Fold:
Amino acid sequence: MSTVSAESDGTESGADASTGEAADAAPAPPTAPPTPVIPHARLVLLAACLGLFMSFIEVTAAISTLRALQVDMEVAPADLSWVSSTYTLVVAACVLSGGALGERLGRRRVFLAGVVLIAAGSLVVASAQGYPQVLIGRGISGLGGALVLPTSLALITTTFFVDLPRMLRYISVWVSISGVGLAVGPLLGGVLLQSFDWRAVYLVNTPLAVITVLVTLRAVTDSRVPDRPLDLPGQFWAVLGLSTLVYGIAVGGRAGYDDPVVVTVLAVAAVALTMLVRTERRRSVPMLDVRMMANSRYTAALCVAAAALFVFVGVVFLEVLFLQRVREFGPLGTGVRLLPAMLAFVAATASAQRLAGRIRAGRLLAAGSLLTTVAALVLLRQEPDGSYAVTALGLVLAGLGSGLVVAPSTAAAFEVVEGPQMGAASSAVTAFRQVGSVLATAVLGAVLAVRFLGVLPERLAEHRLPAPVIDQVVAVARDGGSASGRSTPQITDAVAEAFTAGVHSALWVVAGVSFGAAVLASVLLARRAPQPS
Structure:
C-alpha cells in the first residue's frame, strides 16, 4: 500500500527509499534497438548478385568458345588467348575508377550503366564478322564489368550498413555468386555449344541484363557522394599501371621476360603504380585511400581477399585447360567435372558467416587458406591418364577453402573501418579481389607456358622423335597452336606430359600464394579486432 500511495502522490519516505521502492526506481535494463526496416531488401541483394553473376560468367564462358571461334574466324593460335584476356585486362585496369565513379555519379546509376555495357559488349561479340570486332566487344564488356563489380558490393554495404549482421550475411551470398558464375560458365557454354554455335554463349547476358535493370529500378535507391572529386590523375595512373602489369606478365609468358618490349612494359607498370601511390597519398579525397593501409589488419584483409580469388580463379582456369587439352574433354564434359568446386564453394560460403560467430576471423581465414593449399597439393597428383577422383577431391577442397576465405576476408576489412569509410573499403576490397583474379590467369598462364615450352623438347626426345619434328612441334606450340591436334600418338603423349608439367608448376604457385595467405591471416588477423565507433 505504501508503494501505491508513494507512486500516486509523488512522495516517498526514507524507509520506502531504502526498501521496495529502491528496486522499483532502478532503471530498466536497456533493450536492443529494433532492426531497421529496409524496403525491398531481398530485391536489392538480387540486383547486386545478378550484376556480379553477369560479370563473372564473362570470365569462364568465353573459355568454352575458344576452339569453335578459332575455327569459325580462322584466328591465329597466338592471338586466341586475347579473346578471354581482353575482358579481364580492362576490368583490372578500370575497376578502381568504377568505384570512384559510383560514389561521384551515383552507385545505382553507374551499376546500371555497367550492366548495359556488359550486355552491349556481348551483343557486339555475338554479331561479330571478324576477330577485331570480337576484341572490341570484349573490351566493352570489360568496361561494364569494371563498373558493376565495385558498385554491386557498394549497393549492399550502403543499403544495409545500419543492419550489420544482415549486411555480412548478404555479402556472403554475394560472394558465393562469384563462384557460381565461374563454375557455371564452362557448363553453360558446353550446353549451348551442343545445340548452337559459339555466338549463342554471348547472348546469355542479354536477358539477364533486362531482368537486372528492372529489379534495380524497382528496388535500389541511389546513393552517392556528390562533392567527391573524380581524381583523374589517380585514375590515369591506375589504368596505366594495372593494364601494363597484366599485359607484361601475360605476354612475357610467351615471348620471354627478357624480351625488350616486355621489359619496357613492366618498367612502365612499376613507375605508374609507384606514381599511383604517391598521387593518392597527397589527395584529400583519393580514389584509393592508401592511408587506410597503414592499419596492418586492413592491409592483411585486402591481401588475403586478393589471394583467395587468385587461388580459386587460378584453380578453375588451370583445370579447364587440363581437362580440355590433356584429358580432351569437351566444353560440356569439362563444365560438369568442375561442379564439385562450385558446389563446395557455395556450401562453404553459406556456412562461413555462422562459423565466423564462433571462430576468430584470422583462424577461419588461415584454415580456409590451408585447405586451398592442400587442394593444390592434391591436384599436383593429376596425370594425363590418371583418375578423375584425384581432380574431384582437389576441386572440393579448393571450393571449401576458398568459400571459407572470400566472404570473411571482406568482413575482416570492414571490421576496422569507420562508417564513412565503408564506401572506400568496399571499392578497395573489390579492386584487390579483381586484381587477384586477373593476375591468376596472367601469372599462372605465364608460368604454365614457360614450363610447358621448356619441358616439351625433352618430352618429345624421350619418345624418340627426330630433331626436325621436335623443332616443328615446339615452334607450333610456341605460337600458341595445338601441337597435338594433327600428330602421331607419340607427339600427342609428349605434349600432354609437357602440358601437365606446366600445370603442376602453376599449381605450386597456387600453393605458395595460398600458404602465404594462411601465414598472413594467422599473424595479423588472429587477434580480436577493436570495434570501430
